[in-house]
């Protein structure tokens, strides 16, 4: 193995320490940052994610409201709960864990979260602001990926970045997320599993972000020597273990830097949520942190 490991746990701890310092600074000013997390139903993965988010809040000195609603919740009931939280001045961030049960329209739910409380960065206003390089809540996973890339000391400007995956949560925003910051990539290509010449495109990437949702999809021959490889995938294998989208053994023999699964992007995503929440509390109260 030649690649250096990007330690997501350590980086997340440092990022959460920043959020904790911001939360403490807000408390001195009489502001207690608060995140409401809504979980509808009992999706096992979602339960784990929500538990993690609530735990992180506790560690950062951020108040959390964990709101569990039954699988049979109607769209009207969920929208009514969001409206209640939107009107509550003590709640700074609202997160509805996805996916939602099939009777609920995900888009209607995201649209109902006021952009100033949309700490996921999923609302059309925040997406539009990101696309046009305006201040906004960046979606937590791509924002965490950028921090991980920056942690390597890699100069992002002028680099060729390739993202595999076109989800609204990771793939689509990852492009503008790279482009929106001060350290601009020259080229960001967003591909998916059916992209023609995918291997060649990936093998030219200085920065390769895999968010395709298939265990071991990125093989060693898809990695440029010395590249930074960020693995967003979390796939539960038949062996019961978590596997990334990248074949770690093969890719780490070629890459310069690589993230592990678990212990890579996952913890960073949650840490960025803490940063967005303290930011939301500061903005809503008109103070700087
Ligand atoms: N489900 C999987 N990832 C996410 C996320 O980042 N935010 C929300 N709300 N749901 C998710």
Features:
single chain, three-stranded parallel β-sheet, binds guanine, alpha/beta, 289 residues, 10 helices
How would you describe this protein?
The chain is α/β, with parallel strands linked by helices. Helices cover 41% and strands 15% of the residues. It contains ten helices and eleven strands. Strands 1-11-8-7-5-6 form a six-stranded parallel β-sheet. It has a three-stranded parallel β-sheet with strand order 3-2-4, sandwiched between helices. β2, α2 and β3 form a beta-alpha-beta unit. It is globular. Guanine binds next to β4 and α6.
Q: Can you list the ligands bound to this structure?
A: guanine
How far from one another are the termini? 41 Å
Shape designation: globular
Q: Helical region count?
A: 10
Strand content: 15-25%
Detail the poorly predicted runs.
none
Q: Give helix % range.
A: 40-55%
Radius of gyration: 19 Å
Largest sheet, in brief, is: 6 strands, parallel
Sheet/helix structural class: alpha/beta
Order of helices and strands: EHEHEHEHHHEHEHEEEEHEH
Please count the beta strands (DSSP E, at least 2 residues each). Answer: 11
> Order of strands across the biggest sheet?
1-11-8-7-5-6
Whole-number mean pLDDT: 95
């Amino acid at each position: 193995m030649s690649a250096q490991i990007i330690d997501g746990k350590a980086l997340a701890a440092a990022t959460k320490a920043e959020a904790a310092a911001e939360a403490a600074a807000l408390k001195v000013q009489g502001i207690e940052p608060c995140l409401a997390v809504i979980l509808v139903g009992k999706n096992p993965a979602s339960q784990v994610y929500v538990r993690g988010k609530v735990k992180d809040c506790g560690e950062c000195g951020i108040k959390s409201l964990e709101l569990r609603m039954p699988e049979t919740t109607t769209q009207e009931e969920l929208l009514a709960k969001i409206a209640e939280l939107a009107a509550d001045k003590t709640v700074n961030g609202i997160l509805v864990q996805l996916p939602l049960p099939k009777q609920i329209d995900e888009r209607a739910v995201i649209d109902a979260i006021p952009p100033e409380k949309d700490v996921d960065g999923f609302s059309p206003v925040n997406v539009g602001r990101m696309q046009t390089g305006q201040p906004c809540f960046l979606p937590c996973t791509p924002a965490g990926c950028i921090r991980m890339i920056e942690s390597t000391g890699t100069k992002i400007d002028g680099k060729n970045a390739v993202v595999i995956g076109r989800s609204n949560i990771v793939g689509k925003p990852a492009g503008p997320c790279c482009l929106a910051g001060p350290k601009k990539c020259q080229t960001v290509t967003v591909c998916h599993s059916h992209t023609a010449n995918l291997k060649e495109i990936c093998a030219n990437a200085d920065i390769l972000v895999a968010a395709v949702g298939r265990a071991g999809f990125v093989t060693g021959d898809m990695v440029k020597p010395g590249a930074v490889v960020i693995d967003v995938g979390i796939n539960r294998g038949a062996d019961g273990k978590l596997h990334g989208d990248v074949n770690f053994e093969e890719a780490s023999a070629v890459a310069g830097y690589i993230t592990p699964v678990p212990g890579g992007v996952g913890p960073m995503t949650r840490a960025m949520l803490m940063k967005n929440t303290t930011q939301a509390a500061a903005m809503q109260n008109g103070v700087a942190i």
